[in-house]
Write a structure and sequence with these properties.
This protein is α+β, with helices and mostly antiparallel strands and 204 residues long. The chain folds into two domains: 35 residues, no CATH class; 146 residues, Nucleoside diphosphate kinase-like domain (Alpha-Beta Plaits), CATH 3.30.70.141. Helices cover 42% and strands 12% of the residues. Strands 2-3-1-4 form a four-stranded antiparallel β-sheet. Helix 1 crosses helix 2. The radius of gyration is 20 Å and the shape is globular. The structure holds adenosine-5'-diphosphate.
Length: 204
């Protein structure tokens, strides 16, 4: 199927660049794999030309307070500006079951019932961002768990002041990120695509 799609696209490109095989080849290779492959094959990672060092991924979620306060756009903008690549995005009303898996280490905390109530009080916007050291950098961008201690310039430091409403979640380690991404996203929901400006955001 993919071969057939590539053939058709090649024919179309040849109409625009008659006799110029190089242009056709170049444009074909830049065409997002996800669009060619269709839904079932997106998320295949072996097809990207990117080195592993810039393919680290993390899970970022705008919590219900962030969505209610219309902060989604500003939070996305910060990650885009930093040069990270969005590879997955969805809005959902989270189930208690998913949350209890997500916050499994919090189950014994006194605030856990309130945390579940808060996190299920409205929709969340959950994302997967990709890039060099994205886990560590995102944690810095998001700031201290307690907004009262978060630096100005961080998401929590700029948009919140109480630990019970800290606007955003960011995975805290590589292992945590992998676990959370698998929990929140199906493989086919993550897109494998190349940013056209990638040579300007890192050195290969
Ligand atoms: P982080 O979200 O920064 O990784 P934790 O994993 O320690 O922090 O906590 C998970 C979430 O639990 C926090 O983001 C916050 O929403 C909530 N939380 C943590 N501590 C408290 C607390 N003392 N009171 C209320 N909610 C809390």
């Amino acid at each position: 199927m993919v071969m057939l799609q590539r053939c058709i696209l090649k024919r179309i490109l040849q109409q625009f660049y008659p006799g110029n095989q190089e242009s056709t080849k170049c444009l074909l290779s830049r065409f997002p794999t996800a669009l060619l492959d269709g839904h079932g094959a997106v998320g295949h990672r072996s097809k990207s030309s990117l080195p592993d060092v810039v393919r680290e991924q993390t899970l970022i979620a705008v919590k219900p307070d962030g969505v209610q306060r219309r902060l989604v756009g500003q939070i996305i903008q910060r990650f885009e500006q930093r040069g990270f690549k969005l590879v997955g995005l969805k809005m959902l009303q989270v189930s208690e079951d998913l949350l209890s898996q997500h916050y499994c280490e919090m189950r014994t905390k006194p605030f856990y019932p309130r945390l579940l109530h808060y996190m299920t009080s409205g929709p969340v916007v959950v994302m997967v961002w990709e890039g060099h050291k994205v886990v560590e950098t995102s944690r810095m961008m998001v700031g201290h768990t307690n907004p009262a201690e978060a630096q100005a310039g961080t998401v929590r430091g700029d948009f919140s002041h109480h630990i019970s409403r800290n606007v955003v979640h960011a995975s805290d380690s590589l292992e945590g990120a992998q676990r959370e991404i698998q929990l929140w996203f199906q493989r086919k929901e993550l897109l494998n695509w190349d940013c056209c400006d990638q040579t300007n955001t890192y050195e290969a």
